[in-house]
């Protein structure tokens, strides 16, 4: 498959990219990726904005055969890997429908099924491959979707670091730490009130005599 790179002043154009994709398909080469130019030293003058890549995909999707529409990717700095980008076709959503738009600008709604029951297919699959859960990915968003994780928290999150420093500092005390003292004070107050009631009862009995 072909993995073309968008180069400023060379192929950062919808017509040029469309012609390239068509020519690749003619010679039976699959247009696989369109890359955003890397952040490598000495080639900065070739970099086009990411929005140009989205514009190119917008000019291909729906305007030519699906075979000639590659995936636009950014090779994320710092070892983030390939991140696929595309124009946003999902405009909004509610509990019972999604609002979509197509390449022509037509905006429409698609109703969600009312009787959908998730997980049935996996139940059948598990009967044949009972150990597939062990191989199921728990990385990133996939882990959240499979209920293997509740959230994703960066290791260097400053807020969590400050919270840990606060909890480890003996000079600080939380309401939870003061719970025992609070219970003691409540018990002392209760005993004091009961003593006053007993004293009043005895006084009332003396007055009655």
From TrEMBL:
Region called Disordered, residue ranges: 160-209
Record-annotated Lysine-2,3-aminomutase C-terminal domain positions:
57-183
Q: Which residues carry this modification: N6-(pyridoxal phosphate)lysine?
A: 82
Q: Which keywords belong to this entry?
A: 4Fe-4S, Iron, Iron-sulfur, Isomerase, Metal-binding, Pyridoxal phosphate
Cofactor(s) the record lists? pyridoxal 5'-phosphate
Question: Looking at the keywords, is Iron-sulfur present?
Answer: yes
For this UniProt entry, the molecular function terms from Gene Ontology, in alphabetical order, are: 4 iron, 4 sulfur cluster binding; isomerase activity
| Cross-referenced Gene3D superfamilies | 6.20.120.40, Aldolase class I (3.20.20.70)
InterPro entries reported for this sequence: Aldolase_TIM, LAM_C_dom, Lys_aminomutase/Glu_NH3_mut, rSAM_sf
Entry superkingdom:
Bacteria
Q: Which Pfam families match?
A: LAM_C (PF12544)
- Name the UniProt record assigns to this protein: Lysine 2,3-aminomutase
Q: Which organism is it from?
A: Bacillus wiedmannii
């Amino acid at each position: 498959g072909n993995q073309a790179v968008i180069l400023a002043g060379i192929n950062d154009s919808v017509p040029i990219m469309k012609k390239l994709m068509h020519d690749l398909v003619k010679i039976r080469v699959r247009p696989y990726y369109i890359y955003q130019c890397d952040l490598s030293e000495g080639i900065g003058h070739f970099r086009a904005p990411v929005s140009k890549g989205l514009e190119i995909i917008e000019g291909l999707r729906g305007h030519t055969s699906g075979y000639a529409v590659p995936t636009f990717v950014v090779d994320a700095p710092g070892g983030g890997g390939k991140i696929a980008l595309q124009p946003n076709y999902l405009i909004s959503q509610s509990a019972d429908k999604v609002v979509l738009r197509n390449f022509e600008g037509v905006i429409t709604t698609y109703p969600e099924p009312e009787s959908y029951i998730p997980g049935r297919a996996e139940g059948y699959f598990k009967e044949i491959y009972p150990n597939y859960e062990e191989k199921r990915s728990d990385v990133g968003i996939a882990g959240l979707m499979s209920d293997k994780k509740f959230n994703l928290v960066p290791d260097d999150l400053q807020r969590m670091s400050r919270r840990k420093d606060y909890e480890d500092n003996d000079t600080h005390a939380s309401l939870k730490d003061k719970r025992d003292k609070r219970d003691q004070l409540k018990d002392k107050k209760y005993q004091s009130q009961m003593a006053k009631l007993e004293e009043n009862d005895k006084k009332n009995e003396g007055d009655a005599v």
